[in-house]
Design goal:
Layout: H1 2-51, E1 73-78, E2 87-92, H2 96-99, E3 104-105, E4 116-121, E5 142-146, E6 150-156, E7 192-195, E8 221-229, E9 236-249
Parallel strand pairs: 2-3, 4-8
Antiparallel strand pairs: 1-2, 1-5, 3-4, 5-6, 6-9, 7-9, 8-9
């Protein structure tokens, strides 16, 4: 009996060590690996931008040109409230290999600044964890996207519990200019929600709307971030929706003021 108990104890200790090592690998080692891949992707993007001369434009109707190649970066994302060091290059595609590099653009969704839904996925734990703290985003917080020619400023939409009293509350803040509950077919699109993994409709051009978009529906320019929920689990998805409130043509020495927000 004593030998059996000792053997069982040793097996449990071994199993515990294996689990601990796995957690260390997933949380820390994969972060280091992904950091290197993210640096490489950013360096390649900078080289591309520096090599190609493209004239910026203030015309929001004029589409920017992108080289959308699987696994390659085409834009950069900043979240000012997470600090000046928060910046990630966004790559094309959301496969496992893509998300090991950084946030990944859902193929077929809108591109930065376009009408529709610019949808981006990212890990919450390990592999760089670019979306680790997206649950801390509040309504009107800025998410800034940089392309070769433009800066696009999205702001988080009102959360579900803020919609009813929005006009009398946060709407009065200067930071919330251009932000408010969306009308019509967009009414179910709020700043943050938790859904099951099969709810792919959250990245539709009109989130939650399946099928042809009814005529007369106001065309919005949205950004949607998706990540696993809760941490260390893929049982659900945490979704953040934001709306485009400003765009700026890039110019030498110009940095959007929104990047200074805290």
């Amino acid at each position: 009996m004593r030998k059996t108990i000792r053997a069982a104890g040793e097996l449990l200790i071994t199993a515990g060590l294996v689990i601990l090592l796995f957690v260390v690998y997933e949380v820390y080692v994969t972060d280091l690996i992904s950091a290197g891949k993210q640096d490489d992707a950013t360096a390649a993007l900078d080289d591309q931008w520096n090599a190609n001369t493209v004239v910026p434009t203030e015309d929001p109707q004029r589409k920017a040109q992108y080289d959308l190649l699987d696994g390659q970066a085409f834009a950069k994302m900043y979240v000012p409230v997470f600090g000046p060091d928060y910046r990630f290059s966004v790559v094309e595609g959301t496969g496992d290999a893509n998300l090991e590099i950084g946030p990944g653009h859902y193929v077929g969704t809108a591109l930065p600044g376009e009408v529709g839904n610019f949808a981006v996925a990212g890990h919450r734990v390990g592999k760089g964890a670019p979306f680790n703290d997206v649950d801390l985003l509040n309504s009107c917080d800025a998410i800034v996207v940089e392309t070769q020619t433009q800066w696009f400023v999205y702001r988080v939409l009102p959360k579900a519990d803020e919609v009813a009293g929005w006009a009398e509350g946060k709407a009065k803040s200067a930071r919330c200019a251009g932000v408010g509950p969306l009308p019509g077919e967009y009414a179910a699109t709020v700043g943050q929600e938790i859904v099951t993994p099969d709810r792919g409709d959250v990245i539709n051009p009109v989130p939650h709307h399946v099928g042809e978009i009814p005529q007369g529906t106001g065309q919005q320019r949205l950004l949607t971030l998706t990540t696993c929920h809760p941490r260390f689990s893929d049982r659900q998805r945490l979704i953040v929706h934001a709306v485009l409130t400003a765009s700026h043509a890039k110019a030498p020495g110009f940095v959007p003021g929104e990047l200074e927000e805290q």
